[in-house]
């Protein structure tokens, strides 16, 4: 082995405006004090507590975990240390905000102020979750904001992951002092710390610091806590510098000129400003001219976000078209490839939810997008793509004929999507079978049918890994687009016979023309 001494200047020199495509962000965590809440660290006081109640034992740099103290750092043992329990579990200290029936002091924040070295984009991350008690209104978020700035890029936050209930806990377990005799029993804090080690509860946001030496405030905020078992746990803060260059992708642009005029270097990495309207919790189509790793995808769209690619006709049920999930477990793996077509489900709101962003182009003009928009660090544009593209057709044995996944990188204001295609609705995440040709905004996909045939297609249903996603109103639900169906009213066929009591039942009717409230409705 060979030792190498790294100076503070070496660390500072890693902070540069532009990173090559193969480079990771520069680690700036050394600017934080006690970022991982180490056992009895004297720097714990740099974390400023507001609105919470604590019993801090300064002589031991330790905290009392008992009731009514809502803020606690530790793993469940503090008195009479070091004993066998501490020796066994001393590396599992984490920070916690508990309710314990003390509603008056269960909501607040834990913040550390950092004077950053250089302006630019920073990635702030931590491990953490919030666990609402039954009926609770608890919300907890990771935040980062620049003192004195109102720019939406510089005032960001996002909800922590919700606890997946991998283990149970009680108020007594949260407040108990674990001793040597309890060494065979892991406290809830130790169990949480071990879950953090797996990486499943990582949370990350990107924040823009506009000037060298600005003060950046990072931390955790809890609100709405009103049940005694409410618990927010967090650990392992990291701060990484991503440079001061960015690129913009805008769903409303009608040509790729704006992308060409950004003069992006294909060997350089940029912070991506992505303006793509996506509704949290619903399935949406997605295509991008850049690649994303699993880590980048989860940073933007949530640790529990889902991604799937088109597989083809279901082998067991020919009328179903199957998507297959993309494995997101390997953070370094590429999960979105340039100009490929996917469907996805985000579990978090856009990173920037207020203000606007303007990108100056090399001809002196500028493009402005309004929040909300997503930010993703260290993204490379290998080449300016074609505006529209299509995957190879997938053969089916149904009357739909071949199906073809198509996508666009620009806002198509003309009716580019053919009639009888399938699209994911922006409002409800359901599949729509289009009655008419439609326009479509950028970074979206559709499924065209009968690409090698002339007859109109019959309805298909859709699955992910062979499983229908919920009831007939979920992802496989079939609706009519291109006609305005009345919300209510009895349904009649053209012979005047009543075939359904209400228009809400039209989804179970066969194809044909029906009359509702004296209006003809076609089901294709």
UniProtKB/TrEMBL annotation:
Domain of life: Bacteria
Stated name of the protein: Adhesin
Record organism: Prevotella histicola
């Amino acid at each position: 082995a060979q030792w190498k001494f790294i100076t503070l200047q070496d660390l500072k020199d890693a902070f540069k405006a532009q990173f090559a495509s193969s480079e990771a962000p520069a680690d700036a965590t050394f600017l934080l004090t006690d970022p991982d809440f180490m056992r009895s660290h004297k720097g714990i006081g740099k974390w400023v507590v507001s609105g919470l109640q604590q019993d801090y034992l300064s002589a031991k740099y330790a905290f009392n975990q008992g009731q009514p103290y809502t803020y606690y750092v530790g793993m469940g043992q503090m008195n009479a240390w070091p004993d066998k329990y501490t020796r066994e579990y001393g590396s599992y200290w984490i920070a916690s905000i508990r309710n314990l029936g003390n509603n008056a002091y269960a909501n607040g924040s834990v913040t550390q102020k950092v004077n950053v070295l250089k302006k630019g984009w920073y990635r702030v991350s931590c491990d953490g979750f919030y666990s609402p008690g039954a009926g609770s209104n608890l919300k907890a978020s990771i935040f980062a904001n620049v003192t004195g700035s109102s720019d939406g890029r510089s005032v960001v936050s996002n909800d922590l992951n919700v606890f997946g209930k991998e283990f149970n806990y009680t108020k007594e377990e949260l407040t108990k002092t674990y001793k040597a005799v309890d060494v065979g029993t892991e406290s809830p804090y130790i169990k949480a710390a071990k879950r953090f080690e797996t990486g499943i509860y990582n949370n990350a946001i990107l924040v823009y610091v506009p000037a060298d030496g600005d003060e950046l405030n990072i931390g955790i905020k809890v609100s709405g806590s009103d049940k005694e078992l409410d618990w927010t746990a967090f650990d392992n803060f990291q701060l990484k510098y991503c440079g001061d260059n960015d690129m913009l992708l805008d769903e409303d642009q009608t040509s790729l000129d704006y992308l060409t005029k950004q003069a992006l270097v294909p060997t350089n990495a940029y912070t991506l400003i992505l303006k793509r309207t996506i509704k949290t919790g619903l399935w949406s189509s997605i295509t991008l001219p850049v690649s994303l790793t699993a880590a980048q995808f989860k940073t933007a769209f949530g640790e529990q976000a889902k991604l799937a690619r088109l597989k083809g006709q279901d082998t067991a049920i020919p009328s179903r078209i199957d998507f297959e999930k993309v494995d997101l477990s390997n953070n370094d793996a590429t999960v979105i490839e340039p100009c490929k077509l996917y469907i996805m489900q985000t579990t978090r709101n856009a990173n920037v939810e207020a203000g606007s962003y303007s990108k100056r182009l090399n001809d002196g003009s500028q493009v402005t997008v309004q929040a909300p928009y997503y930010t993703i660090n260290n993204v490379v544009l290998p080449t300016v793509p074609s505006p529209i593209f299509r995957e190879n057709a997938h053969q089916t044995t149904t009357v739909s004929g071949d199906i073809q996944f198509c996508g666009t990188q620009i806002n198509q204001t003309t009716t580019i999507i053919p009639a009888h295609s399938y699209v994911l609705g922006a409002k409800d995440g359901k599949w729509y079978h289009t009655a008419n040709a439609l326009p479509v905004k950028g970074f979206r996909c559709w499924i065209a049918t009968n690409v090698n045939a002339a007859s109109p297609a019959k309805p298909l249903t859709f699955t992910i890994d062979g499983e229908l996603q919920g009831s007939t109103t979920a992802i496989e639900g079939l609706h009519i687009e291109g006609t305005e169906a009345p919300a209510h009213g009895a349904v009649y066929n053209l012979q005047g016979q009543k075939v359904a009591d209400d228009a809400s039942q039209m989804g179970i009717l066969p194809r044909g023309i029906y009359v509702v409230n004296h209006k003809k409705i076609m089901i294709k």
